[in-house]
Amino acid sequence: MKILVTGGAGFIGSSLIEELLKKGDKVTCVDNFSDYYDILFKKENIRRLKNKRLRVLNVDIEDRARLMRLLKGLHFDKVVHLAARVGVRNSLKNPDLYIKTNVTGTLNVLEAAREMGVKDVVFAGSSSVYGNDEPIPSKEDAPCLKPLNPYAMSKRSAELLCYTYHMIYGLNVTILRFFTVYGPKGRPDMSPYIFTQSLLTGKKINLNGDGRATRDFTNIKDIVRGITLALAKPFGYEIINLGASRPVSIKKFISVLEKITGKKAKIKYLPSLSGESRNTYADTSKAKKLLGFESKITLEAGLTEFVDWFKANRLG
Ligand SMILES: NC(=O)c1ccc[n+]([C@@H]2O[C@H](COP(=O)([O-])OP(=O)(O)OC[C@H]3O[C@@H](n4cnc5c(N)ncnc54)[C@H](O)[C@@H]3O)[C@@H](O)[C@H]2O)c1
């Protein structure tokens, strides 16, 4: 298949492209190598993927004219739209950037898909759209009308835009709501990376809240498998949770890391931050029913691999 992956230089995108290339697909990656975190990490992700079947276009999805120009005349079977401004905390400081990339940028990607005659789109949704909605575990039919931060609001808005494009133009869109993804090439702004780095370098962990909030940490291998399953099975318009469905408290998460690294965490407790969900927990019965998806990687196994990767790639 010929697949366009936006955000392909990032954590999830580069992990997905690696898998698609292994399967023999032809991939075009669209990414503007944004400087939200170290650009060298993204360049390294792409360098490692070097392959005759991979084309990389350095373009900002906010720039519709340039995006259209670069994609003109190209043919794709599928689009996986992962490019986004990420990070809940940063979205509190720069809300306008999140609207531009995640809403207007998504509009541009949907327009490009329409223009190129692509029928099937997979979009990266986020567990953050559930906010503090009850009940938990979260199900896809929850209204998601109370986003707690601009990032969540922008991802929810983009989902609605996908629905509109499905209704008007018949685009098949599968929205996969990812739950706290971790693993090799993981993002340096996320807790698995920050905690591992702090433990391995003997630094203090600044922890907002009492450590009892829970997260449904999901391994990147499960996420990549979920995306490939969704690519193989277009529906009209569906929203599907992709999560481990095994939430753990932040305290428990740190204690698993302590065991794996053999180091004791020095934790400094700070006040909770507003704008963050208290708990995330995916109900994955729809993923199982529609995609045959179930998380396979345990937290212990996934974190052991992550710590090994971190030692080999991020220390010294
Ligand atoms: N990592 C998680 O836990 C998680 C959870 C829920 C949802 N998601 C979603 O998954 C997707 C991938 O996230 P990730 O963790 O790999 O993040 P990432 O930051 O590693 O990857 C995102 C990529 O998008 C690119 N990008 C940003 N703005 C762009 C623009 N204007 N034009 C072109 N490219 C742009 C960045 O350069 C980056 O390479 C995002 O849509 C994110 O919202 C991630």
From TrEMBL:
Q: Which Gene3D superfamilies match?
A: NAD(P)-binding Rossmann-like Domain (3.40.50.720)
InterPro entries per the UniProt record, alphabetical:
Epimerase_deHydtase (IPR001509), NAD(P)-bd_dom_sf (IPR036291)
Give UniProt keywords alphabetically.
Answer: NAD
Q: Which domain of life is it from?
A: Bacteria
Q: Keyword Transmembrane helix on this protein?
A: no
- Which stretches make up the NAD-dependent epimerase/dehydratase domain? 3-243
Q: Which SUPFAM superfamilies match?
A: NAD(P)-binding Rossmann-fold domains
Any keyword NAD? yes
The cross-references to Pfam families, in alphabetical order and at most eight, read: Epimerase
Name used for this protein in its record: NAD-dependent epimerase/dehydratase domain-containing protein
